[in-house]
Amino acid sequence: MTTTQAKTTDITVEVVYRGIFQKTLAQRICRGVVLAARKGGYPGTAFARYGDSPERNGVPAKQFAVVAADDTRLEASMARYEPSVVDVTVAVDDTLVKGVESWAWYGRQPIWKPTSPNGFVIVTSDRSAEEVLAQTDKTDRPFTLAIVPGAASFAGLWVYKDDHTDWRVLGAIAKVAPDWITLESVKAFVREQTKDENAVASVQFGHDHTTLRPVKPGEGTDAHEVLQFDKPGWTTMRPGIVVDARKPGERNPFYKKYSARTQRPVVNFDTCIKCTMCWLDCPDECFEVTPTGHYEVVYEACIGCGICAQVCPVKDCIVMVDELKFESNDDKWQQWQKDRAGYNQWFEDKSGVSAAPKTRAAAPAAGGDD
Q1: Is the separation of the CB atoms in 46 and 31 below 8 Å?
Q2: CA distances from 244 to 18, 229, 241, 252, 259 (A)
Q3: pLDDT digits (tens, 9 = 90+) for 150-190
Q4: pTM for this one?
Q5: Helix (H, G, I), strand (E, B) or coil at 62
Q6: CATH T-level fold of 3-222
Q7: Between the chain's N and C termini, which has fewer beta carbons within 10 Å?
């Protein structure tokens, strides 16, 4: 974006984050964009897409920052409830690049969907740009993928993890949009806010070490399930709407929860004692009993909360693994049935722990007559 354009238009930055868990982080980034831009003479404002209530655990949500050439342009931008096109998309958790399923659910959307042609997608990740790109949906327009070094940071409603993720991201934004948010204005804002030269140094680090990878149309993966729907307009809706109830034993074939995950559970069926704890305690009912009495994860329903791994009484029977190690949501029990050695090797490769049943706990007594 050129300086001439900056005088006659505006720029919109969206921060996509895990609901509740990263809300504070997203707020601080958007606030930083606006306050740094104001130091450069541009008015701006930051706002949330959702309030606190719908931001359930892990569900993607968005914060926005809009910076304009003048107050009139800013007011025009603010007339939109939600920007449909943004110049910069920031994903503060790299697993979000697999797609975003919003709380107001309209299907899983590519992370780059609202990003303008030749815009920027900024991702905090300890992976390379090639590894991150391999998990994004195949794009139909050019954009630049920017990788900010660092792992996912969690700073929610009640906690603030001061690991300088916000400062590094602001440095990256200054790198990709210097006509609006200059590096010096970001550093001045951070110095004023924190009185901490280490924070200022993190801004510089984010600016200097963010890698840029141009992405051409057609790059990315087409392995993701396509879940996008057309909503009826008010002129085409029926006078009455009936939502069919879920039948016992069936899940909604359209509503998926898997984009809420940062990690997913993998199960060692060889060490499973069939105690039912994962099935009983899973808040999203994503475990199903198999003909052998084992319990497998229905990954389309799993939000990756990790409760199953916490309640499982057998060490390393259920292991939480980084979501970006997976490319599909296929259930795994049948694979174990057909090829145990192959499945166990898969389990070890993904989890990093041995699949060998070294120590098995005794199954708890069921009670009543056996």
Answers
A1: yes
A2: 29, 18, 10, 10, 24
A3: 988 887 777 777 899 999 999 999 999 999 999 999 999 99
A4: 0.82
A5: strand
A6: Pyruvate-ferredoxin Oxidoreductase; domain 3 (3.40.920)
A7: C
